[in-house]
Design a protein that fits this description.
homodimer; alpha+beta; 60s Ribosomal Protein L30, Chain: A; Phosphoribosyl-aminoimidazole Synthetase, Chain A, domain 2; four-stranded mixed β-sheet; 11 helices; 35% helix; globular
């Protein structure tokens, strides 16, 4: 069956996503959705565009659907929030058949089910490029607290949840070897193709009153950490190869790269970066054992790794 | 100045859109925005893509910015809702300079100011095509009522607010003559390039308890009316040339077209289509004098104009 009309496309979406949900007073199919809301809602939007954020040569359709929603969920995780629903804009180029869209939507729907997340609405359009625009919203943890960026003080401990440089290793391997990289570097490829949004970690961190702030790492630690600290602060990082996923170390060794460079410049990590007073870090680790301390906030601007200035800038989606 | 980094682009956006607003607990620049919400919020998303929804040959940058927000606002108008804020995804192709983006954002910001609407967040990405994805949200009229589609009964009066076929006349004139059409057919060109979202009309209609439902006409009456009525109902339309904007009549006459065909098949109207019990229509007109009755809901499926079946289907964004 060709997806040659809006009605057929909408019917396909309805096969993957239920229309009713307790958080929706009115679901898909009207001019707007009507959401039942707490008094504060956090909201984020994300674009995923072919050739910029993914390639079809090694992203399966399921991976594209999964990744678009996972990246958007990661923004909620970084607020310590719990997702409530999302909307989907699909940019549909000619020549992709029903089978492709069925698989893309199934990858997205599987992740949505994991979080009991309704697809509340969206828009469909023909387009010269394949792309997805997602908008997601959520509620605060039970204590009502959202974790914004910053709020750090000199001396604060910095930590991450999730792997640094693993998705970058996956990207390099997939760019070089295509899908064969998936069996050779399974963790690295999965970090790029099917990132896991750290919603539970974000909620646990929001419950720790001592955590100052949180953000998700999408452009690499070197680019994102200054955004987290804000103006006037720097950081002294202390990251050791032993803190990294073994595949980052092995991939770096095989390819003559520095694992720490991968960790610092790699994009698409979707790891969470946070800060807490140094004396409170033990308490935070008791609640979230998976976190890794990575250094200290400093009065001295700039980033340093083991005392040496970091010059790499991370990923800017605007650089060609 | 070239907009060659995300930071510069964000600085340009900050020049047009304030970051703080009473409805925002946290504005742009974090992983999510945090919105202060009533217990029900309505939300809609819209795509506007070059070559599909607009051409740069006759859309000035200001028009593109205005139209993207106006189309999104129209979805709220169609719920009888009042806008609270919006988020913007920008797909940025190479080669458009700062002047272009400055003008596009100024067109959008002027309309946002008109409704005291904060830009709460968004996403930026390089893209092979120029495109905008907007998400907008709003609150109900003071009586707490949202106007969904449908809910019609046989015999109900159908009405529209706004002009039918005017934007289609503008589209045909602009496609043929480019910007010269703007002085020749000013109302028609403006209807396409700079539609006016009918927020005040929507709110006034939501305040009339007798109004059954409302939707906005974006794909033409012939395509949208069946979506409004839902399955099992039809309509007997009674639209006269005298109900149409004089430019629709003049344009049709000049070009050997039927003004009623333009009115019924034309897309991009952003007019509001509603229904009310026939005996209640007088009351609705007392509150919203600009509305035009266009016919009756019928038990007999299908659409008829002055008794004759309508065969035209309106606009499907998926047909090439």
């Amino acid at each position: 069956m060709a997806l040659d009309s809006e009605e057929r496309f909408l019917a396909l979406i309805d096969r993957h996503f239920p229309t009713a949900h307790p958080d929706l007073a009115l679901g898909r199919g009207d001019d707007c959705a009507v959401l039942l809301c707490p008094d504060k809602v956090c909201l984020s939007t994300d674009l995923l565009i072919e050739g910029v954020h993914f390639r079809r040569s090694y992203f399966r359709p399921e991976d594209i659907g999964h990744k678009a929603l996972a990246a958007n969920l990661s923004d909620l995780a970084a607020m310590g929030a719990s997702p409530m629903g999302f909307a989907l804009e699909l940019m549909v180029p000619d020549g992709l058949g029903q089978r492709f869209w069925d698989r893309l939507l199934s990858g997205m729907a599987a992740l949505a089910r994991e979080f009991d997340l309704p697809l509340a609405g969206g828009d469909l359009s023909r387009s010269p490029v394949l792309g997805l625009g997602l908008t997601i919203w959520g509620r605060a943890a039970p204590n009502g607290r959202f974790l914004a960026r910053g709020g750090c003080c000199p001396g604060d401990a910095l930590f991450v949840c999730g792997d640094l440089g693993l998705a970058k290793s996956g990207l390099l391997a997939l760019e070089r070897s295509g899908r064969r990289a998936v069996s050779r570097w399974p963790a690295a490829a999965a970090a790029l193709l099917r990132p896991k949004p750290l919603i539970a970690h974000g909620l646990a961190l929001a419950a720790c009153e001592t955590v100052r702030g949180l953000m998700d790492l999408s452009d690499g630690l070197a680019a994102d950490l200054p955004r987290f600290l804000g103006p006037g602060l720097g950081a002294d990082l202390d990251i050791k190869p032993a803190d990294l996923n073994q595949e980052v170390i092995n991939f770096a060794r095989k390819n003559g790269l520095s694992p720490l460079d991968l960790a610092i410049s790699g994009g698409d990590d979707y790891a969470l970066l946070g800060a807490a007073p140094a004396e409170g870090l033990r308490l935070v680790r008791a609640r979230v054992p998976e976190l890794t301390p990575i250094g200290r906030v400093s009065r001295k601007p700039g980033l340093r790794l083991a005392g040496k200035p970091i010059r790499t800038r991370g990923f800017d989606h605007f650089k060609t």
